[in-house]
Amino acid sequence: MKPNKEYVNRVAKISRPSTKIKDFIWAYCVGGIICVIGQLFMELYTYLGMPEKIVKMLIPVTLIFIVAVLTGLNLFDKIAKRAGAGTLVPITGFANAVVSPAIEFKAEGFVLGVGANMFKIAGPVIVYGTVASVVYGLIYWITTI
Question: Full-prediction pTM beyond 0.85?
Fold first, then answer.
């Protein structure tokens, strides 16, 4: 089925021109800044004398906490709007995907609102990530026997 020519012309007229190069640069820079912030926390925690095992756990927890707070203050969405995948690909995107629906549905109550809707976006990522890791683990186990 071919789209209506008038519709295609209207969409082309209304749509903003693509700025892919600019979007790529923003995503790269913001994603890099998030990684630098993670590295700074690693250096800080190491400087404070924490064991490496604890430091490796604290970095994602710290980044998730910061993004959860920024999402609650409605600041992370403004950053993500400009940076695109630069904020969504790292662990910060996962934190935002959990916190955003929780905030959106809080008016419906703690159990049926927040609890039922918190993993609406992040749930499939968790499920498919877990399934993929199990399949990968089985393949690895079979090939190393």
Answer: no
